[in-house]
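Open question from group meeting: does this chain pack into something compact, or does most of it stay loose? Before anyone orders reagents, we agreed to write out a predicted structure and look at it together. Recording both the input and the output here so the notebook holds the full record.
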Amino acid sequence: MTEVGVGLIGLGNVGTGALQILTENARSLREKLGFRLAVKTVCSRNIHAKKSLVCPDGITRTDNWRDVVNNPEVDIVVELIGGTATARNIIEESLKQRKSVVTANKELMALCGPELWSLANANGVNIAMEASVAGGIPIHTVLREGIAGDSVAELYGILNGTSNFILTEIEKSNAAFDSVLAEAQQLGYAEADPSADVDGLDARSKLAILAALAFGEKLTPSDIFTEGIRRITPVDFQYAHQLKHTVRLLCLARRTADGIVLSVRPSLIPQDTILAHVTGAYNAIWIRGQYGEDTFYYGRGAGSKPTGVAVVSDLMRVAREIRFGSPERVSPFAHERLGEWKPLPISTQELPYFLRFRVEDKAGIIATLATILAKHRIGLDAVLQLPREDWRNLPFVITTEPAKEQAIREALVEIRTADFLVEAPLAMPMERGFGGGR
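Structure tokens returned:
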């Protein structure tokens, strides 16, 4: 075999980037592999409208994905259309025809990746998904191979570039969420419908995949506690800075004696930690191992070329297997079999909390809040109030001593009935257990 044939389905940002790398970097890829990665067919719903697409001679263009899957010259199908319906059909049909698959589809792999791997294994082919999480950071390879000998204790990640861009722009410019979101949409960081990003759903799918790799458990994304960033305001950063913290949309996976705690939500993290300095559309993952201790991974979380590199790197690994034969394929989830544990309720964790209130200023507010918190056995650590002229919409913050989240929630339910509140309180955990200073 002098070449391995590739069929590419989906020519959006990632698909176009992958095709460009396969074309422009063909010589280097061949020198590394010892044989050619040959693109045989490309597919897009609007393929005939892509006049500017750089596509070498001899490559078939089609708007029907079945033409790619059924092409006898195609050994590896690359699925880059996203979604969970048609993409699943493409992958399942490819595997049944004994064609390996490379995908960047985090939503689909989080929902049914283990089942697709079982189908691949039954048909003697592979499925690779490095590009599904953190774009240009090879975090799958790290967990599957690089630190496979360790036992992961904790994993923290900034896994959504759109949300991180928005938060760090609010922090830098003191602008409101809506105006920064509009800027992100203009720059192409956010979709017209940004819900998956700003509500934490994209990061949730990525965390489910990483937690499966790290802990060997099949996790349903909807079981992961998730909150988005829509309520974060410039004043939250002002108060966080007073506490020598900042705010990030933090993905957490922590092993405890009772099970795994998982969450995606805005959290306060100390300013002297590495993760606090991850800005813009970058992603980062910090991992603590039982034996290897702390490691950190940083890079572009999205983008046509960084993610395209991950796709092409997966293609190279799978192509080597096809070219030279491999009696034992390594599961993309790094474990021969996945367990099926539900994550522990987030209410079981115990941390200090940042509680931000907006109130109509009246006498006795702090005393009322302190009484309610004390009733739920929550100790106050500090009360912060920046000068404000509008007494009808006065923001201030209470930080607590470490407390069970269940107690925090129950206290906030009682507090919400207070007649001095302008809006519901905002609660964020103050994470302190990871990644030391720079």
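Observations to bring back to the group:
The radius of gyration is 24 Å.
Residues 346-429 form a domain with the Alpha-Beta Plaits fold (CATH 3.30.70.260).
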